[in-house]
Amino acid sequence: MADTSLQTGLTATDVAAARRTHGWNELPKAKQAGPLRVLLRQFSSFLVLILIIAAAVALALGERIDALTIGLVVLLNAGLGFVQEWKAETALSALREMLSPQALVLRDGREQVIAARDIVPGDILILAPGTKISADATLRRAAELSVDESVLTGESVPIAKEEEMEVFAGTSVTSGRAEAQVTATGAATEFGKIAHLTGSVGTKTTNLQNKLGHLARQLGIAALLVAAGVAGLGILLGRDLNEMVMTGLSLSVAMVPEGLPAVVTITLALGATAMVRQNALARRLQAVETLGAASVICTDKTGTLTENKMTATRIWTLDRQYEVTGTGYDPAGHIAWQGQRVRAADDAVLGAVLKTGLYCSHAHLTRDGDTWHMVGAPTEGALITLGYKGWCDLPEERNLLAELPFSSARKRMSVLYQSETTAEILTKGAPERVLEVCTHIMTQDGIRPLTDTERGSVEDAYTQLAEKGLRVMGFASRSATDHQISEKDMTFLGLVGLIDPPRAEVRDAIAMARSAGIRVVMITGDSPITAKAIAGQLSLSITQQLTGAELDALDEAQLEAVLQGDILFARTKPEQKMRIVSALQAQGQIVAMTGDGVNDAPALKQADIGVSMGIRGTDVARDASDLVLLDDNFATIVRAIGEGRRQFANVQKFVRYLLSSNAGEVIALVINIAVGGPLVFLATQILWMNLVTDGVTAVALGLEKSEPDQMQAPPRDKETPILGVSGIVTILVLGSYTGLASLWIFFHLMDQGVELARTTAFTAMVVFEKVSVFAFRSLHLTCWRIGWFSNPFLLGALVVTLGAQVLAVYWPPLQVLLHTVPIGLNEWMFIGAFALPILVAPEVLKALRPAPLPRDVIGAEAA
Ligand code: ATP
């Protein structure tokens, strides 16, 4: 393949031609569960097995209509299950789509971010630390590049790569920078040959799903045993065989919470979709669940708490200080010294600072009409803009001879530039890291040795700028003697202060986290003074700040002790995050940790919830994370925690709801057998209640909005059971009431015929179950507080299910299937009278109970 120009890359015509020959850069997709598979899955559950046995038994006993009804219920249930699961499946695949990888390429002379699938052979890829390489390529330019090839070779030590060497799709850059020409894409790559798939939303079942699946199975087995026991006993006592077998079947159907697993799945999947609307993309469903229990958020500063839109506002040199006007990356603006405009050409020291900022950089400004865009790191973009404002000459790329790239550990970078007359090393970075390699300083009177007093002046100036919350960069240079970059004996040039304003929403988000009992720990690579100033602007209370070096000096016990307080970590290396996460976890905290760089991946994996950045994050960090912030915003984490809490609460609500409905049925059936009455509910009626009416209501309960005081309570314990003692008591109390009430109705109406009595008891149970749902809408707030009409899905579900029950009683075909007869006003009044306390009593109890926590308006809407 001919070499593509490193100045321009491919043109649109080249790309089109290559696409025709080589196709898209993608691997054959994994087979997604198709509609048929999802449908078939509905028939493979334990419940369906019980039902099929039930239908067979009914058939064997000559109860053809019952067998038919059970068959129809199985179909209906499968239909509902299919709709839910299909919805969950499509929601998840939409999320998967959003994770598709991107790549930075050079095309038509411009660096552009494109979808990785658009890459064609010949493209020039631009590689930086954390980039996941999307195609096989040959390095055309490389500076200190090393690549992690463990996906291909299993070897986890990064491999150093030089020009003309190959890099492979699926591997990732651990350090350095490079430009590489693509040689193979898609299935033709080495990675394609071993065909893996990337960018998936994990479909592993979550703890919650596992726990509930387990609960459902246990109840299923218990149901079979109890049913067999009761039926066997009845037969031994000489009761009618047919009736006892049908009773046993009814009982087992009544005890199994059929809807549970499907309702959980759909709730989590719909919840994940709701989170995306709030800019939080969960890569694993488990993340949503864990988020609800998060007790600490460890966050970086730049870009998460702040806007990451940098503007240089101050320049400090030993004998002059300058102000800079203008905002953003628009070069309109100027540099002023004592109120007078100055340009690079007028002032040698200023010129040297500006030149270093311009040359020691990978950012570019592009212009689109009146608006300016920046490609690259915001810090560097701001320095380019500053260079424009000072009328500095732009660098010529061909004069760049070597580079020592920036890394978060070194916190500085250097380049070697050659002009016609000189060769120069230019360095920029954290001021203290630049100052430590300087022996001289540049002044208006020339270069002179750096004395302790002058070092002190630099440090004072650095502190003063940082105290204003500015990000401060230091600059140095020296002439080069050979083509090697040696960062020593350099001349200090000056400092630039960059403003990076805090994000508007973060202040409230921090306040909300505090009221929700969630601690916020800032861990930043920036200076402690800047970090403290920004924390102050955001009302994040800090009593102690530690630098990475100070952190290294602490032993585990000391670290545990400092982690009790309001602490901030500054000038840290990404590697140190891991230690902080582990120490917090040792205290029993559930930790959410943000990270964007390649070295953040281990900490993201270690954290309970690894949070990566959708905009500025690297591919490696994203792959290691559970949650991607599509807007890089801290406030999104807090919102996602709110969403996690909402979902856990909703799962608790519908589990309790479903089980209390089942409990009512079981209590009625068992007591009825004990007193020797005829069957109070028929097997088909129970199926109707559990599958047709309860399932729909439970899904609607899963869509309940967050409660107004949700973010005013401390995080739940990770081990919080879904049921707990209060849940079990509620289920038993409510179940006893509905069970006994429907039995009472049954016996009371018995003299008007068992059919009428049974239909009324059956309808009463359905109505009770529908009315009781209001008690579960919040486990501690009254419906007055959360709003009777705030969940339209629930109201819709109630209308539909109660409507269905009316049909079950009055519509002849359903009368045949469900063995019902029409009931009169009198019966409805009985039902109404017994239903009323179910609506009223929980409201009264909740209203009388003291509020668990002081209510506060903060966050009521945002959550
Ligand atoms: P955070 O960890 O909150 O994102 P950060 O961006 O300051 O903050 P790092 O990226 O680790 O963290 O940067 C650490 C320091 O290195 C910065 O404060 C800055 O002084 C310096 N620095 C950042 N970017 C560059 C760069 N491109 N070239 C040279 N030095 C840099």
Automatic annotation (TrEMBL):
UniProt key word Repeat: no
Stated name of the protein: Ca2+-transporting ATPase
Transmembrane segment boundaries: 38-61, 67-83, 219-239, 259-276, 722-747, 788-808, 828-845
Protein species of origin: Litoreibacter ponti
PROSITE patterns, A to Z: ATPASE_E1_E2
Keyword Translocase belongs to the record: yes
Topology in the lipid bilayer: Multi-pass membrane protein
Keyword set, alphabetical order: ATP-binding, Membrane, Nucleotide-binding, Translocase, Transmembrane, Transmembrane helix
Cross-referenced SUPFAM superfamilies: Calcium ATPase, transduction domain A, Calcium ATPase, transmembrane domain M, HAD-like, Metal cation-transporting ATPase, ATP-binding domain N
Cellular localization per UniProt: Membrane
A molecular-function term among this protein's GO annotations: P-type ion transporter activity
Main location: membrane
Cellular-component GO terms for this entry: membrane
Cation-transporting P-type ATPase N-terminal domain boundaries: 2-63
